[in-house]
């Protein structure tokens, strides 16, 4: 009987977590070199062709360590919807630390952030090629460990 209850609880938890992410169509992180992220290094993501037309919310994820020397980060995000041929360019200003010095991300020695980028219309069979680069004055940015992209159907 206990085994059955434990099995039912585990299955219910898995189904609940899966149901929360039904509209997520893409989520992936790319690692940044440990020596630092150079200005000319572009991080690329390729989203497979979509099954359903609609509006898609995009988010950029960021993981940093305490070695990151600034309160913010400016990112340039270029996107190409391959089937429809649409191009998008966004500048994302990421505030990592507030004016009181409080970290806005989640974590202790490594911090994770998520920033809304845009909601874009995409057609069925569209695939996306996304590139992200930093637009900071410093050539090499230490302390950034991963950059990610999430795409959620609205």
Automatic annotation (TrEMBL):
Q: Which UniProt keywords apply?
A: Lipoprotein, Signal
Source organism of the structure? Xylanibacter brevis
- Mind telling me what this protein is named? Gliding motility lipoprotein GldH
Signal peptide coordinates: 1-18
